[in-house]
Amino acid sequence: MKRYELIIIGAGPAGLSAAIEAASNGMQVMVFDENERPGGQLFKQIHKFFGSKEHKAKERGFRIGEKLLKEAEGLGVEVQLKAAVMGIFDDKEISVMLDGRVEHYRANNIVIATGASEKMLPFPGWTLPGVIGAGAAQTMMNLHGLKPGSRVLMVGSGNVGLVVGYQLLQAGCKLEAVIDAAPRVGGYGVHAAKLARTGVPFYMSHTIKEAHGDSCVKGAAILAVDSSWQPIPGSEKYLEVDTICMAVGLSPMSQLARTAHCEMENNPLKGGLVSICNKYGETSTPGVYAVGDVAGIEEASSAMIQGRIAGAAISFDKGYINEAEFATRYEEYQNSLMQLREGMFGHKDKEAADMEHTEEGYILSQSLLSKGYMDAEEIEEYPGVYPVEQRGKGVFPVIECTQNIPCNPCQDACKRGCIKVSGKITNLPSVDASVECTACGMCVVSCPGQAIFLVDETLAPGYASVAIPYEFYPLPEPGSKGLALDRSGTSLGEAEVLKVKSSKAMDETAVLTMKVPVEWSMQARFFQVY
User: Fold this and answer.
1) Which residues contact 60 (CB under 8 A, 6 or more apart)?
2) Could you write out the three-class secondary structure of 434-478?
3) Residues ≥6 apart with Cβ < 8 Å to 137
């Protein structure tokens, strides 16, 4: 039986981060993962991360995965793939299925980083081919280059549903609608706005009634629900779709923690059954830790920090770092983790259904929460928008980030200090109208929520230019014509592409500048190719 100082189960963001932290301190680390490739969900994630620079903000998930793997490899971390851990037993012994045989290993410490599995919502027809989870859709698109379907219904408006919905559009699918039984959008408003301005409708307080089709999905019936989650008679709608994508939540994969006799709790705020852990991630079974989604559903950025904390705690416990060094690292990691847990989507506000104001006192857009987009007059009230009287002097940024979410790369992107996120990273960004905007576009491409636009109302008599983030291929050519769409996806009329700027520094986000009538300057937010 082979013995390791540290065995980590799961080569996702949490597991790899724990491995890197421990190995960098000199520990011998072995990582087991049942999949054919390491990285967990990171390699499915082509969107840019939120947070600050230390949280790897504005980096795409798969690039973060590549960096973690390279760093782990450089530190000598062993990663055994296609290795299914079957159980954790006394004395920290584990059994692993490898190539059809069962092997046994023992460790001084074990980190469980097995992640989460997708929840499903049973309904008539839910077993038909064409009903898939959002994670499966991501795997098909981003790992195998396959379209999950042609016409898709997304069930669930949390961040997973919104992010995958946008990636469905990028893959060439038509997203017919996003529905959710909740009365308001569950994910970040900026994610919802990306979908809404392409013309995707949101049906809040709606659920799926049934899938239509004999051998595969041919359509879906949806209906409205009341405040008690009961169907409203006569509210049924039929959507012609060939795919129903389910994004109704995740469940921690905590089975191994149970085999290790860890004390468990059913915690709805963490996604279900999880092990009870101390502040370092250690469970009630000494020497066994749980980090990442298996300890509670959060973003990948949080999972990576949890992994770091566990790796540091184990290193200290085994004498690889001293108490002072551990205290410094723990404080740094914990402060970084708490930043991600602040704001209206943080732990303390997850169940707050009656939020009406931002932390600064601005009125939250009820249109954004119920329809996925802000009404035109609402945006004028936020600090990311120039005053009307100062808009005739050239290019100015419009920041349509109106919720307290942990993110501040826009501030770092603007080298002239035009954009500021004062205090906490969850504070709303503001613009300084006294600072001249150079129209470099770096704030536009740095925003993970694609919520920054550059407007010039002095382009030509009667015309303005609007620069938008654009992540669809092929990129339109300068001089081509199309439709300018507003925040709701409604066509305003014809627009002309003036230029499309893209570079390596922009990391696949182009800045498309279109010419529109000046009266559309604060409305036009998407360019639809003819």
Assistant:
1) 45, 46, 47, 48, 49, 507, 508
2) CCCCCCCCHHHHHCCCCCEEEEEEEEECCEEEEEEEECCCCCCCC
3) 148, 164, 167, 168, 243, 245
Q: Are strands 452-460 and 463-470 parallel, antiparallel or unpaired?
A: antiparallel
Q: What angle do CA 266, 268, 269 make, to 5 degrees?
A: 120
| Of 518, 519, 516, 191, the residue nearest 527 (C-alpha) | 516
| Residue 403 DSSP code | S
Map out the domains of the chain with their CATH numbers. 2-117+250-340 (3.50.50.60), 120-246 (3.50.50.60), 378-529 (no CATH)
User: Position of tokens 């980030």?
Assistant: 401
Quick check: 83 and 32 in contact, CB under 8 A? yes
pTM tops 0.85: yes
Q: What is the pLDDT of residues 365-415, one digit of tens each?
A: 999 999 999 998 899 989 999 888 878 789 999 999 999 999 999 998 888
Nearest to 203 by CA among 171, 173, 235: 235
**Shortest CA distance to 449 belongs to which of 4, 50, 141, 94?**
50
Amino acid at 365: S
Orientation of helix 61-74 relative to helix 13-24, angle to 10°: 30
Cis, peptide link before residue 387, omega less than 30° from 0: no
User: Among candidates 12, 64, 4, which has minimal Cα distance to 29?
Assistant: 4
Give the phi and the psi of residue 162 in degrees, each rounded to 5.
Answer: -70, -45
DSSP secondary-structure letter at 372? Answer: S
